[in-house]
Structures are given as structure tokens and as C-alpha cells.
Amino acid sequence: MQILDKRLPLAWLLGLPLSYFIVAYLENFYKTPIEVSLFAILVHTGVILFFFYLLGRAQREYRVSLLNSGIVALLFIALLVFIPYVYSIAAQFPNLLDSSAFHLAEEVRVTFLNGLIPSFFIAAVLVYVGRQRHWTQSRFYQFVDDNLGGLMLALLFFAVYLIFASIFNRPSYDADDIFFDADGNLYRWRYATENYRDYYWRPAHPFILIIIRPLVGILALLFKGDTLFAAFTLNALVAALCVYLIWDFVKRGIGNQLYALLIAALFGASATQLAFGSIIESYIYLSAVALIFLILLQRDSPLWMQVVTGLLAFGITISNVGQTFIAHFFVKRNLKQIIIYGVIVTALVVPLSLLNNFIYPNSQPYFWDLSSLQGEGTNRFPATVQRAEYLARTMVLTSFVAPEPLVIRDGWPFPKVWMFRASIRKAPMQLANFETPLGDGLALAWVGLMFLGGILFLKNIRKQDNGYFIAFIVTLLFYFALHLQYGKDVFLYATNWTYAITLFMALAWRELADKRWFQGLLLVFILLLLVNNAEMYRTMLTISSESVPFPIWR
Fold it and tell me: What is the mean pLDDT of the chain?
């Protein structure tokens, strides 16, 4: 009981910021004192239990390996500092950041504080009861204990993505193509309003609405029907899920949880994740589906689960089902199974497309209506050596290390913040450049890390199963060929390959996973990457704030 008594007060204290953040966010919808009080009690009780467990886990990890614990602590402390740091960047733009979304109203702060008091005693009782009933043997406890690193990392990145998702998806951003050619306004409408029709009338997303809109609706139940908050919260949640899935894949594939944590943090801090974890579109969902499919293959899951995931990929964007065929073919190398997989997926995509347009009439053309493809001509460009060079640099460099974005002022309602601009109306092709010593240094360091990964891959090519390696290489070649002629800002499609490059490198660096010098190198790179890539957010805010003179939250 002495250990219990010492840890509980500390857990109560350490959990205050997290409880405040959660209750403040919910207070956007539950505003009365009684509602705030109840949520304060419920949330902080749960948070106390989590931190109580976390302190015990930290003690165990410290006894096992002081150095491992130190690296993990440095990483999480850096992320805990990163969250208020990026929030302070956003707070410099009061016309864009609705600070009330993350702060309690003054009239309910005392109510919140009062709710924290009983939570301590409730948590103490639950700890006692849990010990009597051997809570450490429950499935939930075992799941958290086995996956703690990935869950915590995902939670911290979720907070980062959510801050900026709450900014860039407001109705005041009432135009498309503002950030990286993304259709943010369209997808905010399609996911979160009654205006679900694709006003570009494209067939490339055959049944995206019956996939995403129900998820928004379920989350909106928690938010008292506020589908806007539900939509950008869901976007941040799915981006955080991608971070967790990277961690899970690397942990299972290599068996080193610290290494998996560093790889997942590298992915979570990438320019791709920061951008599309915060902008409502279709792309973060595609990344999640691709990662889920890889994990299903890794776990040798039943074929029906792979079929469901393949249908999700097709329904969100037709071309992305290709990733599932590539991964299945090179990882499983089972021709019979891939034929069965392809036949079932092909048989179901038509009825699901019909169902989508039955539930959401006139929402988009059917994917077999080839006449509707004519509008895609504006996104097609000649394949040139320069475009190939710029595309390669975007895929391997810009997707991870954010340069200083391009600012395009072409009479659009908003200035555009892009990474790449195709040659449009005889204007020259442009690519964002690294303009700071930190950006240049990180770009060179990332090239060095990728070169090291390539050397290690070739060195071990005869000693290892190359199924995942080849799948990732073919996926990259597939998207390189596709976007060599398609896309105005090819960074828009970065979620299709960033996970593949990350996992390729994670597997290639496998023999260095236990090396302290390499773990330290990755940690330093990640910390500097966070600082560099936060400036991308600053640029997005600075440029777009010119066109939002007044704070318009709804």
C-alpha cells in the first residue's frame, strides 16, 4: 500500500494537463457546470489510473535498462514540449486559432477543479479493487502493457495533428487547392455537411462516402451532432492511427520496441504526416488502409479481412487498390490466393458503388462511366526529365523534411502554399527548396540515412526474405510512373509512399536496430526534424491568415 500511496498523488498531479485538454475539448459541447463536473470526475479518474500504471511501468523499465529508458524519456519529453510549442505558433494567429476549443470557459474552471477532488478517491478505490481482482491479467491491461509505446506516441501526435486540423478545416477556408492542391473545402463539405456531392464530378472515389461519413456520424454522437468537429477530429485520429500502425509493424517485424518507437516517431514527424494529418482529404485514410493491409499480411490474417481492406482502398481511391495487389503478390507469393482475392474484390466493387449512390444520390459518377474522366485532363502533364527529377526529390526528400513551401499568388481567393507546381499555362515548373541551414543539414542527413539503408539492403539481399522490400520498391515505382504525368502538386499524394519509404528503411536498418549509436542518431534526427517541420505550419498560417481577416469559427 505504500507504493500505492506514493504513486497515486503523483499520478493525480501529472495527469492534470491531459485531463484539462480532454475536458476542455469536450466543453465545446457539454457546457453546463454539471456536465463539466461529471466529465472532470470521469476523465481524471481514468487519467489517474493511466498515470498510476505508467509510473509503475517506468520503474520496471528503469530497472531493466537505464539507457533504453533514457532514450524513451527524451523522445517523449521532446514531444510533450513540441505540443505547446506548435500551439504557441498557432496562437500568434488569433484570427485562425479558436483558442476556446482547447481552453475551459472561465465560468466552469472552478467546477472543473472541484471535479478533480473526488476523482482521486475513486481512483484509489479502483486501484484497490483492481489489485484484489488481479487486473493485470485482464485483456485490456495486457493490450495496453504490450502496446504502450505505440499508444503513447500516437496520442502525442494526435494532439499535434488536432491543433492544426481545428484550424485548416474551418469554413473560413472556403476554397480548394490552398494547401498542396488539396480539396479541403470539398471534403469538409462531403464528410461534414449535407452537401456531399462531388462538385468536380470525378469517378475516382467510388464509395468513399459510405466509408467515411458513417465514421464522422458515430464520432459526432460524442460531440452532440457537431459533424465539423467530428470530421477534423477523425482526420487527426486516423493520422495518429498511422503512427501506431508503423510502430506495430516494425515491432512485430524486428522485435525491438525502442527501435519501433523511433521509426514511428520519424514517420509521425514527417512533413507528410504533419500536413495530411491536419487537412481533411482522402489521403490520410489511404495511408491507414495501406498500413492495415500490410499488418494483415504480416499476421497472416484470414483472406476475408484482406478483401475488406482492399475494398476500402478501392472505395476511397480506385488506384490505391493497386497497393494491396502489389503487397499481396510479393509478400505472400501465392498466385491462387491473389486470384481469389482479386475476383472477390472485383465482384463487390460494383454493388458497393451502387449502394453508395443509393444512400447518397447523385453524389458522384460511377467509376465505369468513362466520360466523366475528361475533367481529369487538367491534372495531366507531359513526362519530362525535369518533372522526373522534381518528383523524385519530392518523394524521397520533401515527404520527410519540409522545405520552405512555395507561395503562389494567382488571383485565387487564398494564396496557395504548395511544395511542387507543375508547368501550368506556360509558367515554369517549381519545387520548394531548403532555405535554412537546419533544412539543408536535415536533407543531407536524410539522404545519408537512405543511402545507408540502400547499402544494407544490397548487402543482405541474399540472406533475407525480400518480399516486403520488393513490394515497397514496386509501390514507389508505381506511384512514380503515375505521377510522372499526373498531378499539379505531387506532394498531395505523399501519403501513398511515405509509409513505404519509412518501412523499407526500417527493415533495411534492421542490423543496426540494437546499436546505441544508431538509436542516438535517429533520436537526434527526429528532434531536429520536429523543429524544422514545425516551420511548415508557421508558413501555412502566415500566408493563409492574410485572407482570413476576422475569426470565423463556424
Answer: 92
One-letter amino acid for residue 503 of the chain? L
Count CA atoms within 13 Å of residue 408 on its CB side.
26
DSSP-derived 3-state class of residue 404: strand
Residue-wise pLDDT for 358-408, tens only, equals 999 999 999 888 766 665 667 888 889 999 999 999 999 999 999 999 999
In a domain, 74, yes or no: no
DSSP strand E in 232-289: where? none
Distance of CA 299 to the CA centre of its chain: 22
| Residue position matching grid coordinates 505505440 | 150
% residues pLDDT > 90 (the chain): 78
- Indicate the pTM of the whole model: 0.94
Full DSSP string of 424-442: -TTPPPEE-B--SHHHHHH
Residue for grid cell 449535407:
194
Q: What is the pLDDT of residue 167?
A: 94
> What's the CA gap between 385 and 329, in Å, rounded?
31
Range of 444's domain?
Answer: 138-545
If one counts the domains in the chain, the total is 1
Q: Please, are residues 165 and 244 in contact by the beta-carbon 8 Å criterion? A: no
pLDDT > 70? residue 4? no
Cα 431 off chain centre by: 24
Residue 324 to residue 261: CA distance in whole angstroms: 25
Q: What is the pLDDT of residues 344-358, one digit of tens each?
A: 999 999 999 999 999
How far is Cα 504 from Cα 422, in angstroms, rounded to an integer? Answer: 28
Instruction: Note whether 465 and 359 are within 8 A (CB).
Output: no
Res 217: pLDDT: 95
Say if 330 falls within a structural domain.
Answer: yes
In a domain, residue 101? The reply is no
At 74, which amino acid appears? Answer: L
Residue 89 lies in a domain: no
How far apart are alpha carbons 56 and 66 in whole angstroms?
Answer: 15
What are the grid coordinates assigned to 456, written together? Answer: 544494407
Pairing of strands 416-418, 420-421: unpaired
Burial of residue 410 (number of CB atoms within 10 Å: 0-12, 13-18, 19+): exposed
